[in-house]
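[User] Once you have settled down, look closely at the record that follows, and write a paragraph about the fold.
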Amino acid sequence: MWFKRMVMEKESPEEWGYEKIKFNLTESSVTDCDIGQLDIKINNNLLLCYGDHSGMPELRELIAREYDGVCADQVLISTGACMALFIVYATLLKPQDHVVIIHPNYASNIEVPRSLECNVDLLRLHFEDNFRINLDELKKLITPKTRLVNITYPHNPTGTMISESTLRDIIKLVEENDCYLLVDETYRELTFGEKLPNAASLSPRAISVESVSKTYGIPGVRTGWLVTKDRKLKETFLATKEQICICGSIVDENITYQVLKNKDMWLANFQQRNKKRFEIIERWINSQDDVEWVKPQGGVVCFPRIKPEISIGTASFYRILNEKYGTFIGPGHWFEMDDRYFRIGYGWPSKENLTEGLRNITKAIWDSKIKSK
C-alpha cells in the first residue's frame, strides 16, 4: 500500500493561502457553522473515555431510523465520510482486485483503490450525455474479477442525479456478479427533488456512506458513517476501524447526535439558503456566451465548462482568476478532466461573494481569450 498527495489537496484553498483569496468558490459544502449557531450543550460530566467502537449507540440508532430494515448494529460511525470510504476499500480489496468507479468523482474514491494496487476501470460520464450513467457500458466493465462498483449521488462534482430505477438496476448488476456497490450519499439530503432511497436499505450487497460535513456545515466535527445490512461484513469493517483509531471522538459523536436530533430544522434552513444561491448561479450561467453546464439536481457544487469552440489559454485563465481577481475555483485537473471544466461550490460563499466571484470568472475568461491576429 502506498499513498501520494492528491492534487486537489495540494492546491486546496488552505494550501494556496486563505489570505490570497477574496472569493472562495471551491468549497464543496454549505457554509461552515460555528459552535454558537449549533446551540450545543456538552455535559460537564461527559467522561472522555474510549467510546463504543462502533460509535455512540444513541447516534447509531438515530441514523438507522433513516434506513428501511436497518438497525443500529448495522451502522458504523467513522471519522468523516473519507474514513468510511477508506474502511470499505481497505476491507474489501486486495492487490489486483478489479474495481469500477464512475468518473469524474471525489478523488479519494479513485486514489485509494489505486494505492491498494487494484485494477481500476473508470466508467466515464460525459458532458454530451448530461453526465448520465451508461448501464450497457457498466455491464461491459464488470468482470468475474470485479469486487466493487462505486457511484456517488447527488454526483460530485456535477450535481447530477440518477433515477431510483437506475439505482435498482445497478444493484441488480452487482448482485448478479457477486460484487459490492459502494454509494457515496454525502449530498443525499440536499437533493432538489425526490431523494433516492438509501442504497443499503435495498440490498446486503449495497453499502451507504454519509457524513455531516457537507450537508450540515460542520466538517470540523469529524463524523461520518457507513451502513450495511450484512452483519458479518459490518463486523469486518469494525475490525478495520479498530486498527485505524479504535473508536471515534466521544465529543464529536455527542455533537453529531444533538445536530441530527434536530435535522429537519437544520435541513430546512440550509435548503432554503441553498435555493437562493442556486438561483444566483443559474442566472449567471444563463447569461453567459462562453460557459455551459449540465444543470445540477442536488448538492452544492456544479461542473460547468468553457465551451469547446472558445479559444482560450486555460493556464492563463486560472492564473488571472487567482492572482488578478482573487477568486478560487476547482480546476478540471482536480478530477482528471480537461481544465476547461471547473467545479464551483455555490453553497458555501455569501450571496455577495458568490455573485462577485462569478463576475470575476466572466472577466478572467475574457482576459484569457486568445485573440486572432
